Amino acid sequence: YMGTVLNRIIEINPTMSSASEYKQRYLVQFIQGDVKSWFNFRLPEFDSLCLLAGLQPPVYTPEAVDLLSPFMFIDLPDEKYGKELCTRGVLTRGVFEVWGHGKSIEECFQSCKQYPAHLLEKYTGENITWSCKVHGYGVDFSVQEQEDIRHSFDGFLPVKGKVKLKNPDCVYWIFIDVGANGSTRTPRQVFFCRQIAEATNIVWPYALPKRLYLGPTSTCEELAFLMANQGLARKGSVVYDPFVGTGSILVPCAHFGAFCIGSDFDWKVIHGKQRKSQHTIQDNFRQYKLLQPELVCCDTSMMKWKRAEFVDSVICDPPYGVRAGARKSGKSDAKPVPEEFLETHIPGTQPYDVEDVMLDLLDMSARLLKVGGRLVYLLPTSIDFKNSELPTHPNLEMVCVSEQVLRDQLFSRRLVTMKKIGSYSPDIKAYRRDRTTEPVPSWATTKDNIHAPIDQRALKRVEDRNPESIERKRQERVQKRLKQMREVQQEYQQEMQQLRSQHLG
């Protein structure tokens, strides 16, 4: 039936006969999810993909973007860029050339009739196999409904080739968007498109359950790939993770061809000595046949690199104390170490305040990054957090902030991307508040608020252990035991009564 649907000659508008008068339009389809998924990560990642493809973002009109729709018009100088955008995108599903667009099927069909005939010729030859698919957003169509929708476009394509459902030369799509809630079947917009490229799932082979070496704070594979794209990790670039842990962030960076460097304060994690693990970070890279990273066990707060401005990207998930707290070298009552013990001395440790972690991270990134390099990091915040409260550095410019809502929409995790805009100077530091007069920033106390419900349950357990509570519970156990004894005694008396009756009888 597909051959009869689209086999008739298109009615061409004579005013559109010249290629110079027609501007090809392109459409990108995103993976759409709810607010708890990567909904707010779509545009920042797409802008980064454009930079990696050699395009200057934005290639779309920001005012025309509908965040409730997975479809967005984009401007591309050539369709080859559409193929490049789909090679490494996590949230990009495909790129298409738009042949028709409208708010109804009929309006979309009339729009298709404006497409120049000479541009159709290379897609409608006898040796060109093809297929036509129908996809609804917010609505599902039965097989019969899909056939009727195809018939609505009778008279458009003069196709001569054979229909081939698997791996055809050309794939045509009819997209019908009725909205995310699916409360109506009335289209908001309809597209007729030719597929340029379809994104492949590059994340699935790196799923955490399949990985050899994991830890309690290993970053999930989707987020790690998004961070690698935000950091512009690419072949030949240098990526540094100062809180490497099990290396879950560096794995996707190495997948894209970056040279990776990682450091961590915990030597057990670096050497795979935690929780009786039989694997190390290197095993994860061997598992995926990736270039091995350079690993250093060090204190990031005190590490002084001999060389500055040699790193392209600093990508990390700092230890902000929600799942794992940070520590650094030193003690408040530290004593001088005799010279004969310096080589074998293991320094003591002390807690590393979240505020100091973030400010030291900004200072270190401003020193190590090349001009134009990116700092990408995660930060837990409350849902009402304002981006203006984020830590700042004179040489680091904010690029974007993506939010993932967590914990019953009370807290969120923000992916912060910054770009270095000035050369390194030891005199330029991150802004530090006056701790005697200025309040603690809200992002530095998020861990306490997240743990508040847990702390309340712990407090209840402590209250249950006071002397009065202990005595009350002891009395309850005694009364319960006495009740059981009375029940046993009653059963015994009943049995004895039955035996006496039988004997007397």
Short description:
The chain is α/β, with parallel strands linked by helices and 505 residues long. The protein is built from 14 helices and 15 strands. A 7-stranded mixed beta sheet has the order 9-8-7-10-13-15-14.
- What is the H/E order? HEHEHEHHEHEEHEHEHHEEEEHEEEHHH
Cα radius of gyration in angstroms: 32 Å
**Oligomeric state of the chains?**
single chain
For the record, give the distance between the C-alpha atoms at the N and C termini, rounded to a whole number. 94 Å
Helix content: 25-40%
Q: Write out the strand line-up for the largest beta sheet, numbering strands in chain order.
A: 9-8-7-10-13-15-14
Total strand count, please?
15
Structural class: alpha/beta
Q: What is the overall shape?
A: extended
Provide the low-confidence segments as ranges. Answer: 1-20
Strand content: 15-25%
Mean pLDDT: 84
Note the main sheet.
7 strands, mixed
Number of helices: 14
Explain this structure:
The protein is about 30% helix and about 20% strand. The strands form 3 sheets. The chain has a 7-stranded mixed sheet. A 6-stranded mixed sheet has the order 2-1-3-6-5-4. The chain is extended and about 100 Å long. With about 500 residues, the chain is of the alpha/beta class. It has helices spanning about 1-5, 40-50, 80-85, 105-110, 115-120, 145-150, 220-230, 250-255, 265-270, 280-285, 355-370, 445-450, 450-465, 465-505, and strands spanning about 25-30, 70-75, 90-100, 130-135, 170-175, 190-200, 240, 260-265, 295, 310-315, 325-330, 350, 370-380, 395-405, 410-420.
